[in-house]
Write a structure and sequence with these properties.
Elements (H helix, E strand, L loop, with lengths): L1 H33 L9 H5 L25 H4 L5 H12 L1 H5 L19 H4 L10 H4 L2 E3 L4 E3 L1 H10 L12 H13 L26 H11 L1 H4 L6 E2 L6 E3 L17 H11 L13 H11 L34 H6 L3 H8 L3
Antiparallel strand pairs: 1-2, 3-4
């Protein structure tokens, strides 16, 4: 009992001491205030070192979205009299490997990639190598072959180059379905016109050569998570195609494909890659796009006989990387740039 009483007395004394100290402190503060002494503000330290606002960069669309071609809704396609054929054509574009790949249900004539890997959203994505202008502009003369080409020839070019395979028979069910579908995609484009958003975005030329070494860094940061560090993509579990297509190696596009030209590859990735990028919200800078193209297209891939390409060599694009050329620039510069001098020379009359 005595011990509890002692503890209680000690606690009361301690509380009295604390209260006395608090009263004295407050009294001292009031004394200083009434004496005219300026006390420091509690927020003075914060005001002396203000936190700078973080500026969030504004991502600008590559072009006004309102001016860009838009594909018809696929639900409209089901109302067409040849809807079954159109849907089969779309399926062949989207899942080419399932029907015509190494383990294809119909034939084994291609490398396992899909047409959709280059012609995004089954050929309907703006600046995604879409088919909007095909029906309106084919048949047409193409300088690469030196002949007038129809849609069937253009499709087989893709099979032989981008899919590193063999051509489809022109009278096959598959060819007819693909032609019908491609024509349907561009059905509202007037004859002879090329709508905005057709094909690929043209990335402004650099003042320097595209750099594969810098491009490798871009690839590691932006692309390797899907296409893998070795560039060989990710195969489907059953081996019928790819979840993410190979960008080089024996199962990728050969060096006769359109994407082997740096300007085409740079335009493709600028408006569409990495996953999530669009022409409305690009992720890569112009320089990153060119450097990435230089890296990917400097890697090993299948070859193709191009001896019959460009019968008029003066018509070769400035970034076609194989001679002979009518100018004095090297194959190295025609592949990696800088392209501005070549473009200027091409524009100068002889």
């Amino acid at each position: 009992m005595r011990q509890q009483f002692v503890k209680l007395i000690s606690l009361v004394v301690a509380l009295l001491g604390l209260s006395t100290a608090l009263v004295l402190a407050l009294g001292f503060v009031f004394f200083l205030s009434f004496s005219g002494v300026q006390l420091p503000s509690l927020t003075e330290g914060l005001q002396a070192n203000p936190v700078e606002a973080v500026e969030i960069p504004v991502v600008k669309a590559l072009i006004d979205p309102a001016s860009v071609w838009k594909a018809s809704d696929w639900s409209v396609m089901d109302k067409e009299p040849n809807a079954d054929e159109l849907n089969y054509g779309k399926e062949l574009v989207a899942n080419t490997a399932e029907y015509l790949g190494p383990k294809g249900k119909v034939k084994a004539i291609s490398n396992g990639m899909n047409c959709q890997n280059c012609h995004l959203q089954a050929g309907t994505a703006p600046f995604g190598n879409n088919y909007s202008a095909v029906a309106a502009t084919y048949p047409k003369f193409r300088a690469r072959s030196g002949t007038e080409e129809d849609i069937q020839k253009r499709i087989n070019d893709c099979f032989e180059r981008s899919l590193n395979g063999k051509p489809l028979a022109k009278d096959s069910k598959e060819m007819k379905a693909m032609v019908a579908y491609i024509n349907w995609v561009g059905k509202e484009v007037p004859k002879g016109e090329v709508p905005i958003g057709s094909g690929l975005y043209e990335v402004p030329l650099l003042d320097r050569a595209a750099d594969p070494i810098k491009g490798k860094l871009v690839y590691g940061k932006q692309c390797a998570s899907c296409h893998q560090a070795d560039g060989r993509g990710v195969s489907k579990p059953d081996g019928s195609g790819y979840v993410y297509p190979p960008l080089w190696g024996e199962n990728s596009y050969n060096h006769g494909a359109g994407l082997y030209r740096l300007s085409r590859f740079a335009g493709y990735v600028k408006a569409n890659m990495p996953l999530g990028a669009t022409f409305k919200q690009p992720i890569l800078s112009d320089e990153e796009s060119w450097d990435l193209a230089a890296y990917v297209n400097s890697m090993e891939r299948p070859a193709k006989d191009l001896s019959k390409d460009w019968p008029d060599i003066s018509k070769k694009p400035i970034d076609h990387p194989f001679g002979p050329f009518t100018d004095g620039f090297t194959e190295e510069q025609h592949k990696f740039g800088p392209f501005k001098p070549i473009k200027a020379a091409k524009a100068t009359p002889n």
